[in-house]
Amino acid sequence: MYINGIKLSPLVVAEPSESYQSGTTLNRWVEVLVDCPGSTGLFTYRLPAQLEIKPGDILSVPFGAQQLGAIAIRLLAQPNVDLAPEKIREVEDIVSVGFFPSAYWELLNRVAAYYYTPLIQVIRVALPPGLLGRSQRRIRLVRGGGAGGRGQGAGGK
């Protein structure tokens, strides 16, 4: 049976010494709840290659002209077809890994469903005050590659 209109990702046939690979990277987008007054929906962001994000992680994301806290809800293999891929912004950083255990995450979803309340409101009540508030500018120190890592300015050793 054939189904019309389905787009399958192209597969590359492997040489005898190689493995099979898909032409696309899976789960390189994430849907998040953003902590912004008035926003109750999910927003899609692109995952940078260096970040490994799981649902329940607390993230820092660009939202308009500011950086806001967000919670990863689910990973996506492809963004929504209504979104232009070039318009999707990248996740800035991970603030807290695995903040929500799966049982707690399930409880929050049940509370939201039971009280007919947006999930972000339930999460705001369940979290310590200010945890998802506007994130401060974060800096990351990286060892310099030249001159033995010294003399690279104030961020040096």
Q: Could you characterize the architecture of this molecule?
A:
By secondary structure, this protein is α+β, with helices and mostly antiparallel strands. It has two helices and seven strands, in the order βββββββαα. It has a five-stranded antiparallel sheet with strand order 4-3-6-5-7, with no helix packed on it. β3 and β4 form a beta hairpin. α1 packs across α2. The longest helix is centred in the last third of the chain and has 13 residues. The termini are far apart.
Quick recap of the structure?
The protein has helices at residues 102-114, 119-126; strands spanning 11-12, 21-22, 29-34, 42-46, 58-63, 66-76, 93-96. The chain is α+β, with helices and mostly antiparallel strands.
Instruction: For the record, give the distance between the C-alpha atoms at the N and C termini, rounded to a whole number.
Output: 64 Å
Give the low-pLDDT segments.
Answer: 11-24, 149-157
Helix content: 10-25%
Give me the strand/helix succession: EEEEEEEHH
What's the total number of strands? 7
Category from helices, strands and their pairing:
alpha+beta
Strand content: 15-25%
> What value does the average pLDDT take?
74
List the strand order in the largest sheet.
4-3-6-5-7
- Gross morphology is globular
Q: Major beta sheet, specifics?
A: 5 strands, antiparallel
Tally of individual helices = 2
**Nearest-angstrom radius of gyration?**
20 Å
